[in-house]
Amino acid sequence: MRNISEEAVERVIENMYLNLGEQLTIDDMARTALFSKFHFSRIFRQVTGVSPGRFLSALRLQEAKRLLISTTLTVADISNRVGYTSVGTFSSRFKSSVGLAPSLYRQNRGVRARIPTDPRRNDWGTRSVSVAGHILPPEDGTAGTVFVGLFPEPIPQGSPIRCTVLNGPGRYRLPRVPQGTWYVLAHSLPDGHDPLPADPFTADPVPWVGSHGPISIAADTLPPSVDVRLRPMRVIDPPVLLALTDIRANALNATAG
Which residue ranges form the domains of the chain, and what is each CATH number? Predict the structure, then answer.
């Protein structure tokens, strides 16, 4: 059952979706939540894991993904629709978050051949370990191919530190994880579904998602088994911005080590 804080955050997120092209401020969001600005910012981060501004930015890029592969609007028109006044800024942020330039994302119909990991983090620290565990199936439903990634934040965007793709729920292993603080994030759609970004207000198809973190990897500790339970994606979950491999093709060999 949702509590008052979750209901307020959902109300704000729904308002974000309705006004992606507007310049929403924290004051605007706090008024929608019926909280003071400072209390609102705190409870929003508690509920979603990220700040209101980061969440709004992610929603704008998610909507841009949807428009790129479901409409013939130009990149400039899409940029304007999701609240960017500069096409250059939009294109830069889209590429850094999604992993492909807007035009290439459209050309590839929202998928990519492989998911590169972040090479800048390979030599952090003097020791690396594996993060492993189980992706547990949803309690009510059947998950298909599962993407599992390790990220520095609870939003699946940019290049993951490590990643893998599974046939379905089961054991995973992410090798050579450098020292740091990370989040294990999982995403799945029933096999056969188009990878069109889901509208959170549309029932079909509902992605399965799961997360665990933050987990700390240090030189003198070994991480315990990290199990992640898949569940239906909710309005309060940050969008999956990273362009994934084609889950319809069961791309087990399409990830980088």
Answer: 4-107 (1.10.10.60), 119-249 (2.60.40)
CA 255 to chain CA centroid, Å, is 17
Task: Convert the pLDDT of each residue in 23-37 to its tens digit.
Answer: 899 999 999 999 999
Q: Model confidence over 90-123: pLDDT tens digits?
A: 999 999 999 999 999 999 988 888 888 876 555 5
Residue linked to tokens 């239906």: 232
Task: Give which of 28, 22, 26, 17 is closest to 84, Cα–Cα.
Answer: 22
- Is the separation of the CB atoms in 205 and 198 below 8 Å? yes
This prediction has a pTM of: 0.86
Q: Write the CA distances from 89 to 8, 84, 93, 102, integer angstroms.
A: 31, 7, 6, 12
Which position has the token pair 């059952």? Answer: 1
Half-sphere exposure of residue 42: CA atoms within 13 angstroms, side-chain side: 5
Name which of 142, 136, 240 is nearest 195 in CA terms: 240
How far is Cα 74 from Cα 189, in angstroms, rounded to an integer? 28
Q: Which of 65-69, 81-85, 89-93, 216-220 has the lowest mean pLDDT?
A: 216-220
